[in-house]
Amino acid sequence: MIPPLTTALPLPVHPSNKGKGTRRPISSTTTSTTSLLQQRSPSSESPSQSQSPSPAGQPTTAAANTTANTKTKTTTARKLASTSPPNFKISARTAQIARHLSSTSSPPDSSTHSSPEHTAMASQYKVRKIGAPNTLEHRIYIEKDGVPVSPFHDIPLYANEQQTILNMVVEIPRWTNGKLEISKNDLLNPIRQDIKKGKLRFVRNCFPHKGYLWNYGAFPQTWEDPNVVHPETKAKGDNDPLDVCEIGELVGYPGQVKQVKVLGVMALLDEEETDWKVIVIDVNDPLASKLNDVEDVERHLPGLLRATNEWFRIYKIPDGKPENQFAFTGECKNKKYATDIVRECAEAWEKLITGKASPGDIATTNLTVKQSPSRVTPDQLPPIPANENLAPAPIDPSVDKWFYISGAAA
């Protein structure tokens, strides 16, 4: 379901206003709502000796794609009208953004394969799902040519030789709440739902947002080094792959490998750690040719960056935590700055995977990185169950609850 939208998008809080009021939940309701990297370029070695790019999960024909998009946009407009509360007026621009963000794509599993002609790399990767979604046992492995690989270490960061197109691994589809992430500690780093105190983690719905605002995921072959303090944020890395917010119109699926281009980056300061959030667009998106830097996002999708800032500021408040802070007073830095951050994190990962930096509890087993002491062959891996594709387990209705945060909306 398309979540209700508002034309009054929240504004970032200027530092001068800090301390003049505390944001807090006031009520809730329920809605049904470089060298190594060059080696890992598309022409480099892989388990199958071929790595040419194309997004997975696309319709098999252009006609099918056009028909599906047309139906989706029509349905979206009807849903938007039918789900709006009384006296709630939606501007034409808001409806346009809703249509832009309404499409969905489906995951290929071990028995399916589709690859439009744009590129072939993404279509090489499929998902192998173990256990039912929304359970503690659920795992999503990424496989290539039937062999499980690590989305952290084996998927190339760059999808072309010019290093202008990057691979992104989708962890969390837009408008969903399950906090899925690449597991740093498990062999081959499958995607799994985060757990706290023995329970699955879900993000809260902070009005007017439903779940995550974007396809949320990570760049492979990147690492935010916890041993390095960034000179501008004055905080160390968060020990994770680099986080990515993909703002295109297709709703992705966990384990999808998208090809994207970088537009900008925000620096969230989360528990005294730098947690970069890179803003990207799927290269196959209809708006991709018009979005080339951060100012283009504001021009063509006005309000999205402000909403992104607001989402990261308040999303932990319903769980009793304080408002998050940003470096650079919440500014989204431009493409050049973001590209430099990506390269820094790629260089940090290179040190990690080649044994020049301590991995701590990070599992570094991989199948493709020549210089890595943790490289193995497929026959050295323990057996991994076949794809199960089980129906999702029921989710507690409380996950759909909406929280109204004081001061969150303009």
Question: Helices and strands in order, then pairings?
Answer:
Blueprint: E1 25-30, H1 35-39, H2 62-83, H3 92-100, E2 103-104, E3 125-130, E4 139-144, E5 147-149, E6 166-172, E7 180-182, E8 191-193, E9 195-196, E10 199-200, E11 205-206, E12 215-218, E13 236-237, E14 243-246, E15 250-251, E16 257-270, E17 273-282, H4 294-300, H5 304-314, E18 325-326, H6 335-353, E19 401-405
Parallel strand pairs: 2-15, 11-19, 13-17, 14-17
Antiparallel strand pairs: 1-19, 3-4, 4-5, 6-12, 6-16, 7-8, 9-10, 12-14, 16-17, 16-18
Helix pairs in contact: 2-3
Task: Give the strand order, joined by hyphens, for the main sheet.
Answer: 6-12-14-17-16
- How much of the sequence lies in strands comes to 15-25%
Order of helices and strands: EHHHEEEEEEEEEEEEEEEEHHEHE
Average pLDDT over all residues: 80
Domain count: 1
Instruction: Tally the helices.
Output: 6
The appropriate CATH architecture is Alpha-Beta Complex
Largest sheet features: 5 strands, mixed, barrel
**Protein structure class:** alpha+beta
Rounded to an integer in angstroms, the radius of gyration calculated over CA atoms is: 21 Å
Shape: globular
Termini separation comes to: 25 Å
CATH superfamily: Inorganic pyrophosphatase
